[in-house]
Automatic annotation (TrEMBL):
Annotated source species: Artemia franciscana
Protein name: Cuticle protein
Compositional bias (Basic and acidic residues): 63-77
Domain of life of the source: Eukaryota
Keywords: Signal
Signal peptide start and end residues: 1-17
Region (Disordered): 60-81
């Protein structure tokens, strides 16, 4: 048993110590180069902008000729808004718009409702 373990340990050490074959991936026929140097398909992009400490905006247009999606989001001061649009070649189309505007803080504050005292209920008699 010890001999088998010793042979396996030597085999693992031999295999792990051999230098790996150098593979030049750039010469591979399936390698298309880095994606950061390629322009996206026409009309598709993404961006982000943070002009101040409490504001940002970002958006993108993604997809292909059969299906596309667009998203835009902005937060500035106490206002948040976003828009999502999508479309496909099967006639599917949709848009959603959201805007949250946190307004006047001098408005009366929320008052919790008063406790409700329910009348006692008698147990059914069988």
């Amino acid at each position: 048993m010890k001999f088998i373990f010793l042979v396996l340990a030597v085999l693992v050490a031999f295999v792990s110590c051999r230098p790996a074959e150098e593979i030049d991936i750039a010469k591979s026929p399936s390698y298309n180069g880095p994606t950061y140097n390629k322009a996206p398909p026409q009309g598709y992009f993404q961006y982000a902008n943070a002009p101040g400490p409490h504001e940002y905006e970002f958006g993108y247009n993604r997809g292909n000729k059969d299906h596309s999606r667009s998203h835009y989001e902005q937060s500035k001061d106490h206002r948040f808004r976003t828009r999502a649009k999508w479309a496909d070649t099967h006639g599917g189309y949709g848009e959603h718009y959201w805007e949250y505007n946190h307004g006047d803080y001098s408005a009366p504050s929320y008052h919790a409702p008063k406790n409700y005292d329910a009348a006692p209920v008698e147990a059914p008699k069988y």
